[in-house]
Amino acid sequence: MDDTSRSTHDAGQPPLVRLTDVNKHFGALHVLKDINLSIQRGEVLVVIGPSGSGKSTLCRAINRLETIDSGTIEVDGKQLPEEGKALATLRADVGMVFQSFNLFAHKTILENVTLGPIKVKGMKPQAAKELGLSLLERVGVESQAQKMPAQLSGGQQQRVAIARALAMQPKVMLFDEPTSALDPEMINEVLDVMVGLAKDGMTMVVVTHEMGFARKAAHRVVFMADGQIVEEADPETFFTAPKSTRAQDFLSKILTH
């Protein structure tokens, strides 16, 4: 990705997502320690690190699937609401794609994608259907629109889950290890869709073990360990010259295979 595309994100606009002094405990375990992080509009931020480093918790905190103990999280200038209608509104602005696809088994693929816009946004069914079909085409599964989730491969189901999140027309998309439950041959079909979204300028926070994706699509890589952000840099710098011994150790283990 060339430098021109990187520099467009900092055009004097406030960040789309801002975490300030965020802390989170699970019992005695301190899983997020004083996290400070800003994500610019149109930026693709990839979060990597060893298991148990707090990556998924960080991702889930951004749309309040995990509550935080202290600090603040803002999306588009608004602090995360505690609960109720304001939280539902905010969640509509923050798309989320998980490891598991969480599709409704008894609804068709198209119904899965159109449910949110109709129920949450009050979109007319015909308009939602047109939007849904265009998004299924965008992720490459338009021919599966009338099938049930069980009839699709894991890679297809995950692409439907991405289309479902996009149907809410979110301002930012969160991906929590979206390929880790997939068979190896299906991983690239999902990553290709994500690379396409990145090229289209979608703001994305991606927790992943896929270093090829991080190198290809990220504007910035954040490396976490033990609940802290240890290092952040552009992909080229991070992968070729990591500064911290923790990151060097992590990369030496995973890039040798």
TrEMBL record:
Its EC number is 7.4.2.1. It is a peripheral membrane protein. Coiled coil: none annotated. InterPro entries: AAA+_ATPase, ABC_ATPase_HisP-typ, ABC_transporter-like_ATP-bd, ABC_transporter-like_CS, MetN_ABC_transporter-like, P-loop_NTPase. It is an enzyme of class 7 (translocase). GO terms for molecular function: ATP binding; ATP hydrolysis activity; ATPase-coupled polar amino acid-transporter activity. It catalyses: a polar amino acid(out) + ATP + H2O = a polar amino acid(in) + ADP + phosphate + H(+). It is found in: Cell membrane. GO terms for cellular component: plasma membrane. It comes from the Bacteria. Keywords: Amino-acid transport, ATP-binding, Cell membrane, Membrane, Nucleotide-binding, Transport. Its main location: membrane. The keyword Membrane applies. It holds the Pfam family ABC_tran. Residues 17-251 form the ABC transporter domain. Belongs to the ABC transporter superfamily. This is ABC-type polar-amino-acid transporter. It comes from Sanguibacter antarcticus.
